[in-house]
Amino acid sequence: MFADKSASIPKVCYEIFVRSFCDSNGDGIGDLNGIISKLDYLADLGIEAIWLTPIHPSPSYHKYDVIDYYAIEPEYGTLADFKRLLASAHERGIAVYLDLIINHTSTLHPWFKEARKSKDSPYRQFYWWMTQDQIDHLGISERETSDDSQVVYPWHENPGDDEKYYGLFYKGMPDLNFHSEALREEIAKIVRFWLNDIGVDGFRLDAARHIYPVWDSEDSITFWQFFSKIIGEAKPNAFTVGEVWADTEEVAPYFRNLNATFHFDLSFALQRMLIAQRDEQIIDKLQASFKLFQQYNPLFVNAIMLTNHDQERIGSVVDRNIKKIKLAASILLTLPGQPYLYYGEEIGMLGKKPDPYIREPFLWTDDPDDPQLTSWIEPEFTTLKTVAPLSEQTGDPTSVFNHYKNLIHLRRTEPALHQILAPNLQPVHFHDEQLLGYFRPHVDRSLIVIHNLGDDEREFQLPDDKSLFTEVLFSTDLLHETTLTTNRLAPHSSIILAPARNVGPFDKQ
Fold it and tell me: Mean pLDDT across the stretch 482-491?
């Protein structure tokens, strides 16, 4: 029963930081028409859904502090441009997910501008307000930092007001208070507008675990029950993926009401493994997380990624090591789940914090004056001196780009790899911490995946019940072409094995 539904879930997704992707009008800022011009590129790469970082009017470069939920940031284009983008993407079989920012607004949003004027404003209830005595009584004047917010003092002064407002991420981003029924109805209108009037396919939900502050944190999960009801009434097949930047145990309950959540534990584990060059029993840990997620939703979708717009780029995490950059992709794209590529990962883009430098311009060509190249920031990490542009990589069969493209094609064509619901994953133990092995069972054709995480060539021995897996579907080790002839794997290499073609259906594992 899982297969039919799974077929409608995009198999490979792509996050676009709009400002940095592609400029269409020469102002140095990425825009919606720039994305339209690259839809053929994304379709050819094998992308089936794009997640756009916020496109609403906002005073910041990143747009995570919204002023108007119904409009398009003028730097990015118009609502007509967005409708063209949506139609053009759908023509190519690409879904479009919007970044929906409802944990907070900008202080310039009309709601907050009215709320801060007077305690009697009907919009006052849309936000969190307390006197210093109330804050001290509850013991919430300070907070421990978290991966997604480094703010220690989240209460901010409103000049001439004896009450402060709560803003978890920044004083310019006051948190919304969803105890307000009037606010809930406003959010429902926004959701219905984008799903029904405009026709988007779903939402990436920012800061999903912070929808209520820590003193009301249990309501953060139940809020999404309200939200999913709105989705179900407006567009039942709309997709929701939540940013729940927390440990797996805290993430799991969100699956009650969301289709997917991002697997941050996996993201950081993969980064540690690539640096340390040894397995962390990641397959066993993934299996345990699947069992936990399934308790809340048997149709959970595990959204997996290497990094995103809030994390240092994988190319920099592995210190620009091309073999490790490819290895990271090989692991991500052979694990079960719904993978999200961060724009530019497919060409090996680099980037370290602070945040603007993990969001640098995409390199389309080797022309430093390329009109498509965004120039809103002077890049520190991804430059023509450090990263080969797409135009150079497309014709190079050994490039990072072609590595991604080949893997994505394989993932989309092999049922064992693209199964998303009821994740099919079992460990294959080699008793060597530098080897990561796993089994992807499937009724059509099962596969074995092996990665060498280390700097040295490693020998491996397939288990007796997997001895028939000798056909090589994919390998980054030149020693292996079409048939497994030796049980050795080069450093930082990967291999995908299928049962030999002369094996009968009842012999397949």
Answer: 91
